[in-house]
Design goal:
two-stranded parallel sheet, mainly alpha, three-stranded antiparallel β-sheet, single chain, hpI Integrase, Chain A, 11 helices, 5 strands
Length: 261
């Protein structure tokens, strides 16, 4: 290595190599690790430990990959839950009593609505409610729906809160998040918040493997187990309440097992 290279030049070169050939996120992370090891092993006299510590991929990329990996690992096994876990999730309605109220509130809203974090905090999504069906919230559009003017019906978990209360809570959550100045910043904020939320759930439910995306499936399965008066099969029921359009996409949410006393 030419010891005349500035730190900025080294950073740029590492980034160039890591991102080459339109690499995927996981490949970029692996390349950063390999390049740092190469530099540390071969040029210790030129590069300090403090400088090597700065040679990292974007934090939001690390969060994005970690969150994806957690979902993949979780999908391999059945998830067994009981009423005690449900009651604890429902207790997050009193979010102000927790050290991290925004994380408790997000967990509660995810569990009773089955919505993704991005759908709960996105400034583009608007809500409407109806007095005739207080347990229903109408979203202006959802994540996988490319038509932004299409209304999506979201059914809240029975015996929790009304659509009017949900709308108030969702606005509180958005205030906790603050305003993002761009789409890129919003994506970054969502990834960071999701990572923090996953840590909160890990502490709250030790050794259970609970994470943000799991709450979506938990909502669907618990709703199906206790509130399926028309006796629809599980795939049809979950497809309906999660607003899925594919015939088999909801099979990913059928791994949950409610252990009743």
């Amino acid at each position: 290595m030419n010891d005349d290279r500035s730190n900025e030049e080294i950073i740029d070169k590492v980034k160039e190599l890591a991102y080459s050939n339109e690499a995927k996120d996981t490949t970029i992370l692996a390349r950063y690790t390999q390049l740092k090891k190469f530099l540390r092993d071969n040029y210790p006299e030129y590069l300090s430990k403090d400088f090597l510590y700065t040679l990292n991929p974007p934090l939001e990329m690390t969060y994005r990959v970690n969150n994806h990996n957690k979902r993949v690992r979780a999908e391999r096994l059945n998830f067994v839950y009981d009423q005690k876990m449900i009651d604890k999730l429902l207790s997050y309605k009193n979010y102000t009593q927790f050290k991290y109220p925004e994380r408790a509130l997000a967990s509660y809203l995810q569990f009773i609505s089955g919505r993704r974090i991005s759908e709960l905090i996105s400034p583009d999504i608007k809500l409407s409610i109806t007095k005739k069906e207080p347990e229903i919230v109408k979203f202006s559009y959802l994540k996988k729906n490319k038509t932004k003017d299409k209304i999506e019906i979201v059914r809240l978990l029975p015996n929790t809160i009304t659509g009017k209360e949900f709308k108030v809570f969702m606005n509180v959550l958005k205030k906790f998040m603050g305003k993002s100045n761009s789409e890129e910043e919003l994506d970054n904020d969502i990834n960071i918040f999701t990572n923090n939320l996953n840590y909160f759930l890990k502490i709250e439910f030790p050794k259970k493997g609970v994470h943000s995306h799991l709450l979506r499936g938990l909502y669907a399965n618990y709703y199906y187990t206790l509130y399926n008066p028309t006796n629809i099969n599980i795939n049809g029921f979950i497809s309906k309440i999660l607003n899925h359009t594919g015939d088999s996409s909801s099979l990913n949410y059928s791994k949950y097992v409610f252990k009743q006393d």
